[in-house]
Amino acid sequence: MRRWAVVAVVSRCVVVLLAVVAASGCAPKKVRRPPVVAVPRDPEWPRPEVLALAERAWRCGYQSGEFSSPLLTVIDYSLPSTERRFWVIDMLWHRVLEHEVVAHGEGSGGNEATSFSNAEGSWQSSLGLFRTENTYVGGQGYSLRLAGLEPGINDHALERRIVVHGADYADPAVIPLLGRLGRSHGCLALRPAVSPEVIDLIKGGSAVFAYYPDPQWLAESRFLRCEDVRTAQR
User: What interhelical angle do 48-63 and 226-233 show, nearest 10?
Assistant: First the structure.
């Protein structure tokens, strides 16, 4: 009988001890899953949907022999001129080499570009895929020619003298005065402090992709359809 009495006392002590532990907060708790937090977009990179289209166009151009450089320049004209919307990306090492503001054409809009053209005298920017050509020194200083690769979209770029160049009006210092960057005649104007470096980096046959969510261009651009590019070569 004594043994059972001892067992009963011990059992009661264990119950009391567990109650004390639970009350003290030391009892095992149900594990909670961490809340799902939306990851903000990395401002140093283009938006994922824009980068995906730019990479698709670059790969299609590469397959069709338009260029062999791993460098891809992306301009996102859906962003205002007050934001850094110009990137030079090394697609081989997946890193951003340059990230700058860039001016758009006077005919394309104020702070936000909304109209685009391939026509001479429109003073509008053009969309689509370009290839960088040779450099020269002209009225805007050290400049880089662009060849438009998309018929009806940007293939008059050379005749329109759509180039990359530096301009004082493309410096962020003018934003407090104008509420935006100044505007070009359709060229990609960069701040003078970086334009020579950028031009030397991307000259000689690299890809430039200018984006805006224009439904017709997105639906018809052959460079956004790799299958179409391969078929056209046969």
Answer: 10
pLDDT at residue 227 in the model: 67
The answer to the question of residue 123 being in a domain is yes
**DSSP letters spanning the chain:** -HHHHHHHHHHHHHHHHHHHHHHTT-S--PPPPPPP-PPPP-TTS--HHHHHHHHHHHHHHHHTTS---SEEEEEETTS-TTS--EEEEETTTTEEEEEE--B-BGGG-SSS------STT------EEEEEEEEEEETTEEEEEEEE-STTTTTTHHHHT-EEEE-GGGSGGGHHHHSS---BSSSEEE-TTTHHHHHHHHTTT-EEEEE---HHHHHH-GGG-HHHHHHHH-
For residues 103 and 180, give the distance between their C-alpha atoms in angstroms, rounded to a whole number: 9
Query: What pTM does this model have?
Result: 0.80
Q: Which domain holds residue 64?
A: 48-233
Could you read off the pLDDT of 43-72 as tens digits, one per residue? 699 999 999 999 999 999 999 999 989 999
Number of domains in the chain: 1
Rg (CA), the chain: 29
Closest CA to 223 of 78, 60, 82: 60
Domain contains 126: yes
